[in-house]
Amino acid sequence: RNLLANPAAGSPGQLLIGPDRRACWDRWRAARDTLRKRHGGRQEEAHHELTLRVVEVVGLATEGDPFQATQRIKELQAQLGKADLRRGQFEELRKRLSAAWQQAQGRLVEQRHERTRQRSEWRARMGQHLSRWQQTLEQRRGQLAHLVEQAGKLIEMEGRARSEDFAEQVRQWQAATAEKRRRAEESIAELEQRIRDTEHRIGRRHP
C-alpha cells in the first residue's frame, strides 16, 4: 500500500515504475494463486466426500431399499445445494442423484404393483376358500337338521317301545345320534368362525 499511495495530504499519489511495479504485480499474482489453490483444494475435498456418498446412495437405489434411498437422496441434494463446488462438479453430482432418484422411484412403483398383484391373488385364493367352506357349512347344517329330526324320531320310538331291550337299543341310538350332533355343531361353529375371520381379513361385510 505504501508503494501505491503518497500519505501526504492533498497528494494525488504516485505511480510505480519499473521494478517496483513488477514486484507488486508478482506479489499480487502469487497471493491470488495461493488463494485459488486453497479454494480449489477445498472444492476437491468437498467433491470427493460427496462423491462417496452419492456412490453409496446409487447402490442403495439400485439394489437396496428404494424408500430409504429416496430419503438419503433428499438429504444429499440439500447438502449439494450448500456445497462449495465448481459448476461442473455440481452438475455431475446433481445428474447422478437425479438418475438415482428415478431408479428408486421406478423400483417403488414396481414394488407397489407387485404388492397389488400379490394382494389380488391372495384375495382370489381366499375367495375360493370361502366358497368351499360355505358349501361345506351348508352341508353340515343339512346334516345337523337331519340329526335333529332323527333324534326326535328316536324319542318317539323309545316311547313306543314294547320291550325294555328294544328301548335300551333305541337309547343307544339316541346316544350315538347325540354324539354326531355334537360333532356337527362343533364343525359348524368352527366353519362359521373361519368364514368370519377370513371375510374380515379380505374386507368383506356380512350381508
Report the C-alpha radius of gyration, rounded: 45 Å
Counted beta strands: 0
Q: Mind summarizing the main beta sheet?
A: none
How many helical stretches?
4
Low-pLDDT segments, ≥5 res: 1-6
What class do helices, strands and sheet pairing give?
mainly alpha
Question: What features would you highlight for this structure?
Answer:
207 residues, mainly alpha, disordered N terminus, rod-shaped, 85% helix, 4 helices, single chain
Verbal overview:
There is one protein chain. This protein has 207 residues and is mainly alpha-helical. The protein contains four helices and no strands. Residues 1-6 have low confidence and may be disordered.
Structure summary:
The chain has 207 residues and is mostly helical.
Reconstruct the topology from this structure:
Layout: H1 19-63, H2 66-82, H3 87-160, H4 164-202
